[in-house]
Amino acid sequence: MTSSTRSIVLSLYTRVFRIARSWQAQSGVASDTERERQYILQEACTLFRQNQQLTDPESINRCIEECEARIEIGLHYRNPYPRATYLPPMGLATQKGRKMRAQQRWRKQAKPIYLQSHDDT
């Protein structure tokens, strides 16, 4: 990791913690605010530690883009949780003779940038 990339990642990390510190739930209820703050902190720690060992510049840049997208979406919608993707399990049509591999590949390609770190559940 280059020094400029390292500084970008560290600034994102501190930005997430600043956002968590000043976060106010949209409902205005103190318990919701505290729950959402804890979620932001836990999610940041989990994802940053999960991606700590990355060395490929392209994958590091994808993670940076994902973090920035999640920050902007969270601030815009005042919701720290990732937005759902509305793609039904068998929502993509297959051609004759194709198996489920095509469905899985298309679903992976259709996954938005802000959900790349999350497994399909």
Q: Would you write up a description of this structure?
A:
This protein is an all-alpha fold and about 120 residues long. About 60% of the residues lie in helices and about 0% in strands. It is built from four helices and no strands. Helix 1 (about 5-20) runs antiparallel to helix 2 and helix 1 runs parallel beside helix 3.
List keywords for this structure.
121 residues, mainly alpha, 0% strand
Amount of beta strand? under 5%
Using DSSP, what is the number of strands? 0
Order of helices and strands: HHHH
Unreliable segments of 5+ consecutive residues: none
**How far apart, in Å, are the first and last alpha carbons?**
31 Å
Rg to the nearest angstrom? 17 Å
How does the helix and strand content classify structurally?
A: mainly alpha
How much is the average pLDDT? 84
Helix content: 55-70%
Largest sheet: none
The shape is flat
How many H/I helices?
4
